[in-house]
Amino acid sequence: MHALEKILAKKAGKASVTTGEIVDCEIDLAGVNDLYLQTVRSFAEIGATQVRAPERMIMFLDHYAPASTVGQADNQKKFREFCRLQGVSQVMDINEGVCHQVAADRGLVGPGKLIIITDSHSTTHGALGAFGTGVGATDMATILATGRLWLRVPEVIRIRLDGTLKRGVYAKDVILHVIGSLGADYAVYKAVEFIGPVVAGFSVSERMALCNMTTEMGAKTAYIQPDDVTMAYVREHTKVPYEVVETDPDFTYAEELSFDVSGIGPQVAAPSSVDNVHPIGEYAGVKIDQAYIGSCTGGRLEDLTIAAGILKNRKIAPTTRLIVVPATKKVLLDGMAAGVIPTLIEAGATLVTPSCAACLGTHEGILAPGEVCITATNRNFPGRMGSRDASLFLGSPATVAASALEGAIADPTPYLA
């Protein structure tokens, strides 16, 4: 079996599982965010009265943090009331940040865990050897009522990343290149595993960006086999019991692909699809109104540090806004202590509360009709960050920082120390 299959088998109380099998699994961590008040409604509609395992539930008030409408504020109020009533103590309120990074910061993620959150980018947790996936409100209500959920065992695709990265190329560039090559529907309800020397050289932060973006290929989950890099992070951060699971040597993958990324430079996904990927040179010089660094894809300390290195002792273009959103309170505090946040602000950045912010197009940096933004987030669909008549380009935090300096899409390489 694959490691992911072993995780599902253990959580289902079975000796083994096979591809396509439906299994009923015990969930290690169930997370609900403030987009999904329907979860509470569905919980009542199915006749549930008590959360089965409140110690394994976590509430994230991250998408509307802080609330910018009466409706958002009322949703959050109802979530807080629900958690008090149900004895759910893990309430990550509007000061904490984005669910996936908060879970990692809090030490709730580790190898062998089954983590389900009402957010499609829960694939992020595969970077730490967990099975992470997203579900909707009704499925989450079932988890809250029973502590369990059925899942179909996915096929597993293995993607090997070979070569040596050029300066200015990061995990975001690599995954955009892969998505652009394979297409946005390539891995629908499949698991994507990453291996190879490039992966081995990535930090946990970069691995999280890699796994996060598999959602844009349609993946059900993502996975990187824990190694020394993983375990150093896990030993420092993880506070829950975990188990490193190995894939059997004779496991047969649904597909095995290889990418030599030595030759790629910085990449951008142009409007309005994540798989509309091109070398940055094809769009260099396109004027931008806004640059955005943040989200569960590009708002970690390493991302902000890279951007600060480019922006240090420089000023952003007077025609451009730069919005910086630390992924979590911990990222914000660490960034302040390291001088990263002051550097970004001195360069002209606008600092926003740790949250999802404008990534989902509701507040704190949304775009007007006709505006152009380059962003380190994960989606560039029409309307994703505001007006449907705005244009979104995706790039790495380094590319976004360089573009903010020039007021136009720019290759970050010349600005790197």
Number of structurally distinct domains: 2
Distance between the amino and carboxyl termini = 45 Å
Largest sheet: 5 strands, parallel
**Proportion of β residues?**
15-25%
| Amount of helix | 25-40%
CATH fold annotation of the largest domain: Aconitase, domain 3
**Superfamily (CATH H level) name of the largest domain:** Aconitase, domain 3
What structural class results from the helix and strand content? alpha/beta
The CATH class designation of the largest domain is: Alpha Beta
Q: What is the number of strand segments?
A: 18
Low-confidence stretches: none
Mean pLDDT over the residues = 97
Would you identify the CATH architecture of the largest domain? 2-Layer Sandwich
Number of contiguous helices: 14
